[in-house]
Amino acid sequence: MPPWSPHVCCRGNNRSCVSEASGAAFDPPRTLGRLDRCGKIAYARVENIGTGLAMKRREFITLLGGAAAVWPVAARAQQPRRVPVVGVLWHAASAEEEVAFSRPLKEGFTDLGYVEGKTIVFEERYPAEEKERFDAYAIELVGLKVDALIAGSVPAAFACQRATSTIPIILVANPDPVGLKLVSSLARPGGNITGLSAMAFDLAAKRVQLLKEAIPALSRVALLVNPSNPNDANRLISELQPTADRLQVSFEAIEARTPAELKGAFEKIAAGDFGAVVVAQNAMYFNERRQIADIAQTNRIATMVPADVFVEAGALMSYGPSWPAIFRNAAGYVDQILKGTNPADMPVQQPTKFELAINLKTAKVIGKDVPPTMIARADKVIE
What we know:
Blueprint: H1 57-78, E1 85-89, H2 99-111, E2 121-125, H3 131-143, E3 148-151, H4 154-163, E4 169-174, E5 193-197, H5 204-214, E6 220-225, H6 231-247, E7 250-255, H7 262-271, E8 276-279, H8 283-287, H9 289-298, E9 302-305, H10 308-313, E10 317-320, H11 323-338, E11 355-359, H12 360-366, H13 372-377, E12 380-382
Parallel strand pairs: 1-2, 1-3, 3-4, 4-5, 6-7, 6-8, 8-9, 9-10, 11-12
Antiparallel strand pairs: 10-11
């Protein structure tokens, strides 16, 4: 068999369809490169067929190798981008209990153009205020290799900190990131943790000042604190002492560690002739805000609480940052991290706007008349 062979023309015959127009003598070894009438190569030869007319073997192999190198790159380019996964460690036992904060958090992502389930995925866990579950869920989220972790409370922050030193952690409404040793400083957090502070202790004196303005005869105030955070009472009292001396108000810490202990704590406050109670910022108290408001109304006790969601539940008044706004702004931190920003270089954000909220319905129930001047400058009034 010759080293060349005719192909079957697309016209259906079995003869060679090399152009007769050439008029040249038929020389199979030199016909590679001639075209048939249908534009196809008529003969092929795999041996040496003449200088300048054939592709050298090494050139052919090089061409094939280059194509093979390009194909994987093209395949990778066609693969869809990986959807980022964000772990959220809440505090309560269910999504329903966290909806006041999860809704603004996800609205923040929506405002930035994310679509849940399509361009971002949330892995949310609800530890029901149990320390062991905080740790177990934090480890589980780290095992899922999430791109970032959002810590919705102090216990959640500690659990995430114990679980990873590499995955970025975003604190949300944390009362004291530096004092709790979660970050090195507010300006340069260092490590893998940053986020948003709620300035819980910095606002304590202002809250007592507002209570005194609302109740001029106030002389004794209870501080409702959770002994699970042993430094809270001492820190609050140290922050309040200069204001207390100036306003001639004394303080005493009353403890409630669990929801079941709240009733007894308020009964003690009522029996102790306290004119009002300042509720410390604590995740359990947030979850039990309706119970706190109901017990306080039953015992006719004025309450100063850390956020307006308590006032909406029936507490007397609050002064502080907008918590929905803090959770909404947390989305911006995650967005920057997903785009490559190092959390160590992202300052912890402190709130700059503070709102006074007053529930006049509660004031009527407990027999307190809030001065009209306070009502006039309140940001939110529930009537």
